Every structure is written in structure tokens, then in C-alpha cells.
Amino acid sequence: MTHIRAALQRKACPNCGSGQASEITYSDTQEFRGITLDLDGLRASVCSQCGQRWFSAEQTEANHATMKQAYVAKREQLREKLGLLSGVEIARLREAFGLSQKEASELFGGGPKSFNKYESGEVLQSQAMDKLLRITAFFGDRAIDFLRHGHGREQMANGAAPRNCVENRLSSSAAKPRSQ
Asked: pTM of the full predicted structure?
């Protein structure tokens, strides 16, 4: 481990000690968080004497950024294929209700940093979360109020059918689709 750390910080070859190295740009296919990525523009140092390849701290950082960018692009393609809201659409919906990412996470669930991850493309929202967001967009502030105040819990605790609780709440609010 110390050998690798030292190689990251120096320009000399970690194998033969030669100070004659050049930087190359290359393409590779790698697994990242369970997704196969075709990566272009990766950077490495190569020793002119022995051919050893290593990565400086700067190259490692740049390669990680390239990998993350490719990962996010691949996730967005998957979202589109599955018919899920994009990260930009989720951010717009959240902002339309004046919610911070933290507030949205608390209101809709999914974990403390879920909306940050949905919007950045790091994580795909579940189909259930996607439907909840779409329902909220459709019913507007009434849906936000419903989620904030847990309307229907009391009726369900007293044996009312869940469908009736939701229908009663929405009809008592004179539910109209939110205009976009």
C-alpha cells in the first residue's frame, strides 16, 4: 500500500525508478457500481525504460471523474428506458413545491440524501417513488398536505379501507389536477 501511495505522488517509475515517463490517454471497459462502462480519455503515466504503467493522484482523480460521468449518463439512459422521471425533472418538481432536497427526502422517504442522489443520477428512484412523485405533481399542494399531515391514518386505524380514506381526503379537497 505504501508503494502504491508513493507512486501516486512521484513522477519516477515505481518499478525501476527511472524519471523518464510520459502520459498516455487510453480507452477501457470497466465495471463501476455494477454497470459496464466504455470509457474514453483515461490517463496514465508510462515509464519509457521498462513500460510500467501507474497513475498520479491527478490522473486518478481525472479518471474517477470520467468514470462517474459515464456512469451518470448510463443511468440516465436506463431511466429513459424504464420511463422514470429524469434527475432534472425530479429537481423541478421538488423546487416547484419549494422543498429542499432534505425536506423532500423527509416527506417522500427514501433516505436522508435520496433526492440528492436521484437528481445527480447517482441512484435511480424506484418505480414506486416515481409514481408517488407523479401523483404529487398531478394533485399538487393537496398531495403535499396529505403527505405532511398523514391524513387517512386515523380512518385506516378505525378499519376504513385505504382507498376510501384517500378518496375521501382528495374529494374533500375538491381535487383538481395541478396546472403546470
From this structure: 0.63
